[in-house]
Amino acid sequence: MIEINDLHKRYGDKTALDGVTFSVRPGEMFGFVGANGAGKTTTMRILMGVLTADSGSVLRDGRPLTFEDRRRFGYMPEERGLYQKMRVAEQVEYFGRLSGLTAGGARKATGDLLEQLSLTERANDTVDALSLGNQQRVQLAVALVHTPEVLVLDEPFSGLDPLAVDALAEVLAARCEAGVPVLFSSHQLDLVERLCHSVGIISAGRMTATGAVEELRDREGRGTLRVVVRGAAPGWAASLPGEVVEKGDEVLVTGVEDDGQEILHLAVRAGSVEHFGWQRPTLTEIFREAVA
Question: Which end of the chain, N or C, is less surrounded by CB atoms within 10 Å?
């Protein structure tokens, strides 16, 4: 259990963090989202001990994090830190040894990860010969090589093609199933919605929403009512309550204050109702509302 409690951080007159609080449970994938400069990277750096908070605490299972705890974390920083002239496999093994693996253990873990991340054929290439996407995969392998007990990844999917995204998602899902808390930041909200159990939205250093993805979608209300009526006369929906958008036989209604039964009755009288149901807001819509 990783707990971030009431973190504050200032740089001169600029407030970077203003009471940031959230937690990541064992086996949970937590998506940390926010605009550039919102405070995501600062929070992660404090979690990893790269920065010191002005106040607040970072706990593991109810106790303050120690240096030894952090040695067992997997961390991928926003700025990539690879040795450009070192070969891929050699580099991943090297970081495995720095994390305490034996030579044989580091070699085996490296081979497994290069296969999972589709880098086996590039094992003997130097990093500077790789595309940016493949360099990103190597950086991820470095973060994962020592089988970390906690994963903290800053924009891990940035620059990856869809196949690489799927490969990484499988690796992270497997770590979650093994009980590892996974915290990652991303601007790809559709990806966060698909992969994460919980999400935290940060804006200008403050948490504006946090919780399970499905709970957040439910919390924001019913969203948009979608009605599809076949054979209705043109303009039948003009008198419906709320804001109405017509797209042929499809009608989208927002701002409905009741359960929509009046709209259903009107739709039935207008023609053959093929679809009637509420569309919950997406994470992207929740994010836009939260940071507005």
Answer: C
